[in-house]
Design goal:
Mean pLDDT: 83
Structural class: mainly alpha
Radius of gyration: 18 Å
Distance between the termini: 39 Å
Largest sheet: none
Strand content: under 5%
Shape: globular
Order of helices and strands: HHHHHHHH
Number of helices: 8
Length: 182
């Protein structure tokens, strides 16, 4: 499996950025890069796709006797794997999202997938429909809180607070307000 070190990518991937320069920055050939990622935007969102799959599996496989809030908090902590260079990698990621509308649109679609996965999970656990208020509210607000927390953590480092903790802290008030002790 190919691993991309996002901190090595050019700071801004635009339509004008060649796949050759991206491949060179990653230390691989253009052909290898293209075989994994037919479009530049897919390079950045590859990790997000793996995260969605991991969170979906975590929610699906969680024992039914675990409270909804406990499972959502655990999912928040595991939403994004944290490499050693997490702040630098995320800073590059946010910069590219801010500068590239195609990547930003695909990232929003990824956020909508998180929302559906969370709403489906909550609905099953509460015995309701995903479109009912509680699953829909948590489906929309949890990913939004996680996004805001990850951006804030990247820029405003709090000494000793790892990303996993910042993510859990962001969703904890939502889970408590919406679910109480469920």
């Amino acid at each position: 499996m190919l691993t991309i070190d996002f901190a090595r990518l050019p700071c801004s991937i635009h339509a004008e950025t060649s796949l050759e320069s991206v491949a060179q920055a990653c230390g691989i050939s253009r052909t290898t890069l293209f075989s994994y990622f037919p479009a530049k935007s897919e390079i950045l969102l590859y990790g997000d796709e793996r995260n969605v799959e991991r969170v979906s599996a975590l929610l699906h496989d969680a024992p039914f006797d675990l409270p909804v809030g406990v499972v959502l908090r655990k999912a928040a902590r595991t939403m994004r794997p944290v490499p050693a260079n997490a702040r630098e990698e995320l800073a590059v990621y946010w910069r590219i999202l801010d500068e590239n509308s195609d990547v930003a649109a695909q990232a929003r679609a990824m956020g909508q997938r998180y929302a559906r996965i969370i709403a489906d999970f909550v609905a099953v656990r509460l015995g309701t429909e995903p479109s009912d208020s509680m699953p829909a509210l948590l489906g929309e607000t949890v990913p939004a809180a996680l996004l805001a927390a990850a951006r804030h953590w990247t820029v405003h480092a709090e000494p000793g607070v790892p990303l996993e903790e910042a993510l859990e802290n962001a969703v904890d008030p939502l889970i408590t307000a919406y679910l109480g002790t469920l």
